Amino acid sequence: MGVSLADAVTISARNVVKAFGQGSGVVRALDDVSVDIRQGEFFTLLGPSGCGKTTLLRLIAGFEMPTEGTILLDGTDITTLPPNRRPVNTVFQSYALFPHLTVAQNISFGLEMLGKPASEVKARTAAMLALVKLEAMAGRKTSQLSGGQQQRVALARALAPQPKVLLLDEPLSALDLKLRKEMQIELKRLQLETGITFIFVTHDQEEALTMSDRIAVMSAGKIQQVGSAKDIYIHPKNRFVASFIGETNFLHGTAEAGAIRLATGERIDVPGLPAGGEATVSVRPEQVRLGLPSDGLKATVRTLVYFGTDTHCHLALADGTEVVARLQSPASGEAGLVEGQAVGIRFADGAVQRVED
Amino acid sequence: MAERGFQISRLPGFATMAVAAFVLLYLPIVTLVIFSFNASNSVAVWGGFSLHWYGDAWANQAVKDATVRSLVIGVSASVLSTTLATLAALGTTRRRAYRGQTLIYVMINQPLMVPEVVTAVALMIFFGIIKVATGYQGLGYLIAAHTAFCIPFAYLPIRARLESMDLSLETAAADLYATPWQTFRRVTLPLLAPGIMAGAMLSFVISLDDVVITEFVKSGGQDTLPTYMLGQLRRAFTPEVNAISTMLLGVTVVLLTAFFLLTRKRD
Lengths: 357, 267
Known about the structure:
Chain A: It comes from Rhodobacter calidifons. Chain A: The complex is composed of two ATP-binding proteins (PotA), two transmembrane proteins (PotB and PotC) and a solute-binding protein (PotD). The complex is a heterodimer. Chain A is of the alpha+beta class. Chain A contains eight helices and 20 strands. In chain A, helix 2 crosses helix 3 and helix 2 (103-113) packs parallel to helix 4. Chain A is elongated. The two termini of chain A are 40 Å apart. By secondary structure, chain B is mainly α. In chain B, 73% of the residues lie in helices and 0% in strands. In chain B, helix 3 (61-93) runs antiparallel to helix 9 (180-209), helix 7 crosses helix 9 and helix 8 (168-175) packs antiparallel against helix 9 (180-209). Chain B is globular. Chain B starts with 13 loop residues before the first helix and ends with a helix.
């Protein structure tokens, strides 16, 4: 039986630990991280600053060596290989363009270092300039370019040597919102056209959700969950993932077979939940439905916040637990609710997800 | 009413002090330059305009020898000290903070802190021992001494340049398949070049100008331009010294201007 190409693993991190500092001041930036990144996928490392996502990227690039564990590229151990001997290129957060070289010289740098013949360097540089639509800027110094153009030079420079893996370290964070949206589409296009495996680091959950084939959510040096955008949004594994990706409501109670009992004494169905002990569930605000007080969990409307397309309704359960419902704003702009009103809460089918603490 | 910050220019007498300071700084130099064109042989009484002291200086074999010696020592010391300072700067900035960093920094810049006359006496005694032991009497001693005290002047601008350089540029070069040597040759060195040029010029000027150490270390007949001038002061004092000083001033101003152009921040 052969392994299909689509599932071939390009980068594999096995039990990787990276510790900084000495003695009692040791900080584990990465704490036993294992992950497989597939050939040709757009893989995102998502997490708050200090979660270890950039450290993992730097280990894959070879800028740092792991304290423990191994990193494989196409099955070969590259853990201790220096960066110049890895077929992996990086787009740096600061772009790190060479200020003494022109745009074209920046792009051809990697090809020249690889010792490619001059004709190939020239042809490939021209092709990369075309790919990022900067033909007219070939002879300019990089300092004469706008932020978005510099970003594209950095991309072209990293793609020119046709690496097996392209690493992108928060490359869009320095751009304004409009340009960022354009570059997101541009990046996705480049990834599809080149077929290169992209590993993208970001702290922006929206960016991660819209661009990635798969996302690894990281926190405190560990990978919390790996999955597609939908997987992670709909089935968050734990509290951290549920609250970091989108907004959510947490409800806490005692586990009964197929349900949890809240402190108010009311029951919420959680299919498949085994009885015994405490449990926490997560419900997205857009999955909360409001009805008559006799229908579902009893709640009171605390405040209404109008957001244009939708209205956020902050509710309190009988024991004071806050639940937020995101309601589509009706044409009149009035949600038909008033503060202090008693309502009943129901949740859409499959919307109640058990999460680990 | 908006509160005004402390402004030194509002202190009473500020303008007077500023003018006095500039007069004290520049009037003696202007006087020196003016009297280099004096027709008479006085450095204090004006006797009409003439260029003949420049001609005298030019024709004076002792001045020519001293000039050549100053240039040989200056260029050698500048090249050697800049090379050493570049290596020192790379060694002290291209790495994480380490133990004894400050101590090494102080040791490199020792010539800025030890009184020059102390270094001069120490070198005279030390080189004296070597002269006796080897019999060598050449310019090597002066070149070695000048190289030593020029190192901090070359080191400081190179280090400043290195510290302002984005370290991720070298990381990027390594990422793009450059070996450590190629990274140095293709990225670090070209970006460092203005700092190296600035260090070389500054150390050349410092060497050209040195009196104290040269006076103590030199063997007989090894006068440089400044020590030759010092020797002249003990004999007949003519505007020839003014003429030599003016030419030295010209060279220094040109080199220092180049230094500032190379080290100023670019946008």
